[in-house]
Design brief:
Length: 410
């Protein structure tokens, strides 16, 4: 069993009887010691003593119920407390509060954003991380924000030192590519318990001809654009691809799957990454550019905060790239194209950054798309010619290799 199989998480399981089979329900598994919540534990004097690390399985048994847990801590130790309830289909809207032995509140959390599950949970599960200020006893209190409770208000409460880890999502979940061309993808990192390291992305056992460009998610970043390059031969039917992310955590090599997802909006404001079954790819048609576009400058393109940065691209001969407009595909906030200069064999692109929206040290990829418009076929020879730009329809487009960039001090 490799480290990917040992990831704690939630598995859908069904229970089979002699003549029946239940519906599939989420069942949480982990590698930590576990215990059951014990009542009464509403008041600090009644708080249930636990030894860390631990997962407590309990419930807010009635409206107004409050569960308390006491543990010993040392100055400077970090602890993480996390509730799994809505993610297990519990109606609990949890609130966590950490106090010291004198009752002074050190931290409190109601909702914690989980981009991987927000559409179904509304971020109702709580999470907090605290560095303990002194040696002594500490109390963790768990209640329902709506002051509700009952037999169905179950939870799993993890109280541990930080367990750095990550999950990955890729958008979109369905891709169309011409033979020999590239298409942009965005990979999101759902970082856990303070993990901030670099993540390298790879294709697992891909069909011949597929490759990734810009396949590093930089340390400290939560998303990166990359490109998927298609083979030179079309495929008769769409098929699935699998991506993985690899990182080093506390000296261990860790591999996690990249879950295909759709970026969906809820209530015109909230965006969620909703998992799909697989990353479906269709390869058809014929590429519009023969030959490879190359980045001529070594290293990442350095863009001064509030200033500019430039990159030179070598282009193959006899391609439409010289006459197509260059646009940034889903650019990072605060970065735009300032100028494009073309010569016989290359193109120089100048990027401008907004100092109020970027930070020195920020890294990632910039994905350029060359696109143009072509005139629609005239409906009558007798009609006069249209003005430039009028009566047009979508024409050629081509995704260029991802350009690594870094924001630097001006």
């Amino acid at each position: 069993m490799d480290n990917q199989d040992q990831v704690p998480g939630v598995c859908p399981l069904a229970v089979r009887g002699q003549e029946w089979l239940s519906g599939r329900v989420p069942f949480a598994v982990d590698t930590l010691p576990e215990c059951l919540e014990q009542e009464p534990n509403d008041q600090p004097a009644q708080a249930q003593r636990v030894t860390l690390p631990v997962i407590v399985n309990g419930r807010i048994g009635q409206p107004g119920d409050s569960d308390g847990f006491c543990f010993d801590g040392r100055a400077g130790d970090e602890i993480v407390a996390e509730v799994h309830a809505r993610r297990l289909n519990s109606p609990l809207d949890s609130v966590l509060k950490l106090t010291d032995a004198a009752g002074q509140q050190l931290a409190m959390n109601d909702d914690y954003e989980d981009k991987g599950a927000g559409l179904t949970t509304h971020h109702a599960d709580s999470w907090l991380r605290v560095a303990l200020p002194a040696d002594g006893k500490y109390y963790l209190h768990l209640t329902d924000m709506q002051h509700q409770g009952g037999p169905e208000y179950g939870y799993r409460l993890r109280i541990t030192p930080p367990r750095p880890d990550f999950e990955l999502r890729v958008v979109p979940a369905s891709v169309y590519a011409r033979t020999g061309s590239s298409v942009p993808l965005t990979v999101y990192a759902l970082r856990k318990d303070g993990f901030a390291g670099e993540i390298r992305l790879t294709l697992r056992d891909p069909p011949a001809g597929f490759s990734l460009g810009g396949n590093v998610l930089p340390a400290g970043q939560d998303e990166v654009q990359l490109t998927l390059s298609a083979p030179m031969s079309p495929s008769p039917e769409p098929f699935g691809l699998t991506l993985e992310g690899r990182a080093t955590i506390d000296g261990r090599d860790v591999t996690r799957p990249v879950v295909p997802s759709q970026d969906m909006m809820q209530a015109f404001a909230y965006r969620h990454l909703v998992p799909a079954q697989e990353l479906r790819v269709a390869v058809t048609g014929r590429d519009v550019v023969r030959g490879r576009v190359q980045i001529l400058d070594a290293g990442p393109t350095r863009i001064a905060a509030g200033g500019t940065g430039r990159v030179r691209l070598g282009i193959p001969p006899n391609t439409p790239l010289q006459r197509l407009a260059l646009v940034l595909n889903d650019p990072p906030e605060g970065i735009r194209i300032k100028n494009v200069a073309r010569s016989a064999g290359d193109i120089e692109v100048v990027f401008q950054s907004d100092a109020a929206k970027v930070q020195p040290g920020q890294k990632g990829n910039l994905v350029l798309v060359a696109e143009g418009r072509k005139p629609a076929a005239p409906t009558s020879q007798a009609k006069p010619k249209t003005k430039p730009g009028a009566n047009t329809k979508s024409g050629t487009s081509f995704t260029l290799p991802p350009i690594p960039y870094e924001i630097v001090q001006p």
